[in-house]
User: Fold Bifunctional protein FolD from Candidatus Treponema excrementipullorum.
Amino acid sequence: MAAQIIDGFSIAQNVRAGVGEKVKELQAQGVIPCLAVVLVGENPASISYVTGKEKALAEAGMKSLDIRLPEQTTEEELLQRIDTLNKDSSVHGILVQLPLPQHIDEDRIITAIKPEKDVDGFHPVNVGNMMIGKKSFLPCTPHGVLVLLKTMGIETKGKHVVIVGRSNIVGKPLGILFTRREYNATVTICHTGTKDLSYHTKQADILVAAAGSPGMITADMVKPGAVVIDVGVNRIPDASKKSGFRLCGDVDFEGVKEVASHITPVPKGVGPMTIAMLVFNTLEAAVASIKA
Assistant:
């Protein structure tokens, strides 16, 4: 029996609708949540992501401050722009789209954003608070994965979660979150140094693929009945498409769906949830600014 497809698109729409209702309440108080979106350069994937984020903000009744900077923007110029946004009380969140051009130190830029405006959840203060279970902005993709599972009624307590990928954006924070008491999972994180990857993936009750490697998780690597969450978004050449490429995940979807109990597709799986949780975090930042 084929796996149940987890419709991340519909779940994300519901999250965004809920945020939109709360935005109306804020608007009645004279507050319009605002996210400054900073894009440096002309990376086509980044432009696509930023456009999607700005559309979602508009649909939720929020304001987006669209800041497009040329590729040759210096690190100091970008830091000055962030400083201005940090001081602007009408801006509740700041998002600098990654990756940045090679001449700019990403860590320095992330650290320059005020933690209370870091809606990506990447600032060391937010990461540290997340680590010890204190209130913080949660990184959007890991948070989105957890909301997907909760919405689908998939139990995590006592389950073995195997995450393939150890990035600071997905793998590491997701591993930390799964070990929180409200999720209570046992976590294994695999990476390029892992020997016999399939041995570990076959142990998983919940398998999360977040390695950025197209189709690397195949049916023979998945335990029958496992829940498979595909975080990968890979662009591969496809002459039949107008764009010249198509999107695929880290999971061989057609093969794995015959083994898994639940599976996320690519696109319309985890991707829409990432944007939905960004909108959610922007709302949280606006609410916190009123209480401050």
